């Protein structure tokens, strides 16, 4: 099959491209704003991952606008361009995030759970609404609500790892907030699975089936590294560094998200537990660096 990818050079997009080509598929990188129908006409699947990073730079008014527009306007432009085709590709897998759910404490969240409140829930809801317009064109639309992607090549994991390497690792705030994560290899396979499985449509939680609290994450990472995990970073320090809104919605928020649709569809996770995932990322099972 031929996959058209926006965000092909990003963390997920580059890993996906490598995996698809290894399996014999063809990939085509697409610009963030797709306005030429010719770029889409020969694609069997469109995977839309483009968007400004939510973790780079403080959330100023201007930065929040950029984050919102890059996702909402970019998706709107893509769907409008798809609408100009005589024959649309059968499938659109469009990025979203578990930020859709907002801060929900200990509540177990699945794809039928309501949207939360705050900047990220608003962005995700608007983003998904634009993508769903592709269903009116006859496309099967998958909304991929991705959790914290664990990879050594970028994203959150290298930043989470660094304090432990300097012997100052530990939980953020009280550490009781739930972290819903996914190993990069499972993330890639979820996208491939969603693109090929005709019964999968609508919101799909791209998270491992075993979320952990921030405290549990810190303890397990410290254990595998042979490093202490006692240096708690107070919530006020996180808010001072990032600003209250960004800190609360990115690092101190609690989201216990379960991949109900994937499990119902019998998707097989290669890294279902945090220990499995961290052992692979660190290179050796139980090895102390």
Summarize the structure.
The protein has helices at residues 11-22, 61-82, 119-132, 157-165, 184-196, 214-225, 235-242, 244-250, 260-264, 274-282; strands spanning 2-6, 26-30, 45-48, 91-97, 108-109, 140-146, 148-150, 178-179, 181-183, 202-206, 212-213, 256-257. It is an alpha/beta fold. It has a domain at 2-150 and 181-207 and 256-269: 3-Layer(aba) Sandwich (Rossmann fold), CATH 3.40.50.
Write the layout of secondary structure elements.
Layout: E1 2-6, H1 11-22, E2 26-30, E3 45-48, H2 61-82, E4 91-97, E5 108-109, H3 119-132, E6 140-146, E7 148-150, H4 157-165, E8 178-179, E9 181-183, H5 184-196, E10 202-206, E11 212-213, H6 214-225, H7 235-242, H8 244-250, E12 256-257, H9 260-264, H10 274-282
Parallel strand pairs: 1-2, 1-3, 3-4, 4-6, 5-12, 6-10, 7-9
Antiparallel strand pairs: 8-11
Structure characterization notes:
This protein has helices at 11-22, 61-82, 119-132, 157-165, 184-196, 214-225, 235-242, 244-250, 260-264, 274-282, and strands at 2-6, 26-30, 45-48, 91-97, 108-109, 140-146, 148-150, 178-179, 181-183, 202-206, 212-213, 256-257. It has a domain at 2-150 and 181-207 and 256-269: 3-Layer(aba) Sandwich (Rossmann fold). Strands 2-1-3-4-6-10 form a six-stranded parallel β-sheet, sandwiched between helices. A two-stranded parallel sheet has the order 5-12. Strand 3, helix 2 (61-82) and strand 4 form a beta-alpha-beta unit. It is 38% helix and 16% strand. With 289 residues, the chain is α/β, with parallel strands linked by helices. The termini are far apart. The chain has ten helices and twelve strands.
